[in-house]
């Protein structure tokens, strides 16, 4: 079992950031599978559209950091991206890893009963968003998916198509008209934890807006945020101490 850092959770739902990425290479099948073995509520990942209209899992806009070879995701075809071998510092002598597909990620979420927290990278056209929705539906995961994006237009399109779906707007900073904007489109918030105060959180909650914070790896900060009543905490390594103890074999 990885040496995760535990904290006393007050009821926040924990999201594994790019899988359990402190202990496995981010956004890979091993990272997703390891997260699936622990008491996370959900597994977060990033999906890009390739040049040929396919969908692939990677955070960055290009492949340089994780493969050593630079290919711009949106300018490169799916077969080329899948042929790249990822640099895995956790298992340098193991079998080479590939960039996962959206299907592979969703399969693991379904298999391990985790909620998919799916970040849509950059602006996508309605047809691409519809294709993503269809893939999620094909896996029977629509009721267990939270869509997130920095691109408001993406989320507005999703809201028009999915009036009851959980959807969160990603924010690095708190805009002045944020509550009004979120309420207009019935969106929740996924915000950098350093931008959130307890007063602001209470204002958001009073407006009926759920709050997810990223990326929290300090147990003292996580406990404080959880004590406020934050709905979700996205993390690379933190675990709920009481829940995790239940998973340790005797």
Key descriptive features of the protein:
alpha/beta; 8-stranded parallel β-barrel; disordered C terminus; globular; 250 residues; 10 helices
What form results from the Cα inertia axes?
globular
Alpha-carbon Rg, integer: 18 Å
Tell me about the biggest sheet?
8 strands, parallel, barrel
Treating each run of at least 4 consecutive H or I residues as one helix, how many helices? 10
The total beta strand count reads 11
Any low-confidence stretches, pLDDT <50, length ≥5? 245-250
Order of helix and strand elements from N to C terminus: EEHEEHHHEHEHEHEHEHEEH
Beta-strand content:
15-25%
Could you tell me how far the N terminus lies from the C terminus, measured between alpha carbons in angstroms? 13 Å
* Mean residue pLDDT: 94
Q: Given the helix and strand composition, which structural class is it?
A: alpha/beta
Helical fraction equals 25-40%
Order of strands side by side in the largest beta sheet? 2-3-5-6-7-8-9-10
Describe the overall structure.
By secondary structure, the protein is α/β, with parallel strands linked by helices. Helices cover 33% and strands 20% of the residues. It has helices at 29-36, 64-67, 78-83, 102-111, 126-138, 152-161, 178-185, 198-206, 219-228, 241-245; strands at residues 5-7, 13-16, 42-49, 55-57, 115-120, 145-149, 166-171, 188-192, 211-214, 232-235, 238-240. The strands form 2 sheets. Strands 2-3-5-6-7-8-9-10 form an 8-stranded parallel barrel, surrounded by 5 helices. Strands 1-11 form a two-stranded parallel sheet. β6 (145-149), α6 (152-161) and β7 (166-171) form a beta-alpha-beta unit. α1 runs parallel beside α4 (102-111). 40% of the residues are buried.
């Amino acid at each position: 079992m990885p040496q995760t850092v535990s904290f006393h959770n007050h009821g926040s739902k924990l999201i594994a950031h790019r899988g359990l990425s402190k202990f496995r290479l981010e956004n890979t099948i091993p990272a997703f599978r390891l997260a699936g073995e622990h008491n996370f509520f959900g597994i977060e990942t990033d999906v890009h559209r390739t040049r040929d209209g396919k969908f692939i899992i990677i955070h960055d806009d290009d492949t340089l950091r994780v493969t050593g070879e630079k290919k711009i995701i949106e300018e490169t075809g799916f077969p080329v991206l899948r042929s790249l071998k990822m640099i895995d510092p956790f298992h340098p002598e193991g079998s080479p890893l590939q960039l996962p597909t959206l299907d592979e990620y969703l399969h693991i979420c379904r298999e391990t009963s985790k909620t998919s927290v799916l970040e849509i990278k950059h602006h996508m056209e309605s047809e691409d968003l519809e294709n993503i929705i269809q893939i999620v539906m094909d896996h029977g995961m629509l009721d267990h998916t939270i869509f997130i994006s920095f691109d408001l237009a993406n989320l507005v399109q999703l809201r028009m198509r999915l009036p009851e779906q959980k959807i969160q707007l990603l924010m690095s900073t708190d805009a002045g008209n944020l509550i009004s904007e979120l309420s207009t489109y019935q969106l929740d918030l996924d915000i950098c934890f350093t931008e959130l105060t307890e007063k602001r959180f209470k204002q958001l909650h009073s407006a009926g807006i759920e709050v997810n914070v990223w990326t929290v790896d300090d147990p003292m900060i996580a406990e404080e945020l959880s004590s406020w009543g934050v709905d979700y905490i996205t993390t690379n390594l933190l675990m709920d101490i009481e829940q995790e103890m239940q998973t340790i074999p005797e």
